[in-house]
Amino acid sequence: MGGSVREEDDFTICGPKHMMLRTGPVIMLMEIDWGNEEHRRSMIACLLKSIYVLQNDQRRSVNDKLAPAWWQNFNFRLHRVLEFPCECLCCKCRQNILGANIRSFIYGAIFKYDAPPGRRHPLAPCYIIAFRGTMQNDPTVFSDMLLNLEVLTNGQLGKCRRFQLARNEVAKLLDSIDHGDGRAVAMAGTGMNPDPIVWLAGHSLGASLALDVGQHLMTSAGRNLPAFLFNPPHVSAAPVVQVLGMKEKDKKDMYTSSYKFKYVLGMTFWWSHMKRMEERFEQLSPWVPNIYVHQRDVICKGFIDYFEARRRLSKSSPEVAMVGTMLSFRDMIDAAFGKKSERAYLLPSARLWVNASTRGSAHALKQWWQQQGSDTLMLSSKVYDWS
What we know:
10 strands, alpha/beta, 387 residues, globular, two-stranded antiparallel sheet, 8-stranded mixed beta sheet, single chain
């Protein structure tokens, strides 16, 4: 492991400095205020970071592991590591010819919160399920990039292997809680009420996993799990708009025309698909995931345009805004060939957190555990609901 990678993985060097209390050489973390957005955000981002470090730790000695500090300092313990089998041709050939075991990679983890004795906060979760994004310079990058391609092109992400594994792991955890903890069953929320027991979290590709799991649970079982999605991919015209340097007025006109065109198509040729999406949006509307995006990040900034275009159009053409929000051109093309698909980034409700900083990497996870108002984090938020 290179020195720079090790430094990036060291909690004492790269962790949230604003939450660290130093007494000489000893570092203590201030107790989490679960009602404080900055504490929640910083802590969840650190748990996500620990998954990247867990993967890196596989190449470190037993006494040189760096991942535990990223969760232990927040009174969490590692409940379960989530892994997926390598899907590269080399591993498959070794298995078929030599009968060798296929190596596994870490894509997520389940963390259990161990509250300090007698000081459990009513807003604190019991578990947080976190999914990492793409890892560069790591053997897992091949599988990650294949899945990124699926996210870009495929509306049926629930059929992808890693998405299926994520859904199954969360379902197993919820089932074990429902049948093993009377308190949890009593607290479990459905429909309009969020479930405080289990939280979902993800960064980049991992945010797509968490988004899919949250949507699936809401539409199939009415389970409303709080979700914290950092830099989730949004497939849109945003990268093209940025490259072309379109003026703000031209960009608004483009989105308005797109929404109006989808409205006409939906009302005339794709009525059944539109009604199906309307039913889906009604099911999803009580779920309000926290979505953290950077206005310079072309991977996720499409969420800003998506919600703002709807808000702007709803003032003058509410029906156009509603239909344009529910439909995508690719889903309509699929529907024309009898295929049912729904883009995961089509959402009725969300709390959107936008980082407007001009410093730092726009897609990096590190920005989200920084202090609000710092050089790399200038946050504003807005709730978009389906009312």
